[in-house]
Amino acid sequence: MSSQTPISAQQLHDVAAAAMVHAYAPYSDFRVGAALVATDGTVFSGCNVENSSYPVGTCAERGALAAAVVAGHRSFTQLAIVTDAEEPTSPCGMCRQALVEFAPNLQVTSYTTSGAEACWSLADLLPHPFTPQSLHLT
């Protein structure tokens, strides 16, 4: 989804909620949808995809990130997550690390299907990230 005007919070929520419907979560029954906004306003969605060999599963956030990278995007401003959990859920540690590579200032909003919401900055969620600078490459 590409947008000339900034996407509203409701539109971003709706994209993530639509992605959650497609989640494949037969083992945990924890369905997640994500919508990631590139700096040009293009929105990429992802859902979690579990696997019977548990480590093979993929989180919604990394699914959206992979779709964006495949499309040539490397910089992002916002991420919305939707789950049917009781409380808003932040990205897992692996997703935080994957996202910080491209968007250390990312704004994250998590929604539940019952209407609860929480907002964080990625810097608050991952205050001391391992980055390319950690490798002394930049």
Plain-language structure description:
- With 138 residues, the protein is of the alpha+beta class.
- It has a single domain (9-135), classed as Cytidine Deaminase, domain 2 (3-Layer(aba) Sandwich), CATH 3.40.140.10.
- 25% of the residues lie in helices and 22% in strands.
- A five-stranded mixed sheet has the order 2-1-3-4-5.
- Strand 4 and strand 5 form a beta hairpin.
- The longest helix is centred in the N-terminal third of the chain and has 12 residues, at 9-20.
- It is globular and about 40 Å long.
Quaternary state reads single chain
User: Stretches where pLDDT falls below 50 for ≥5 residues?
Assistant: none
CATH superfamily, please?
Answer: Cytidine Deaminase, domain 2
Taking the sheet with the most strands, its summary is: 5 strands, mixed
The span between the termini is 32 Å
Amount of beta strand: 15-25%
User: Order of strands across the widest beta sheet?
Assistant: 2-1-3-4-5
In terms of structural class, how would the helical and strand content be classed?
Answer: alpha+beta
* CA-atom Rg in angstroms: 14 Å
CATH class descriptor: Alpha Beta
The rough form would be described as globular
Order of helices and strands: HEEHEHEEH
Please state the average pLDDT score: 95
SSE layout and pairings?
Blueprint: H1 9-20, E1 32-38, E2 43-47, H2 60-70, E3 76-83, H3 93-100, E4 107-112, E5 117-121, H4 122-125
Parallel strand pairs: 3-4
Antiparallel strand pairs: 1-2, 1-3, 4-5
Observed structural traits:
single chain; 138 residues; alpha+beta; Cytidine Deaminase, domain 2; 5-stranded mixed β-sheet; 4 helices
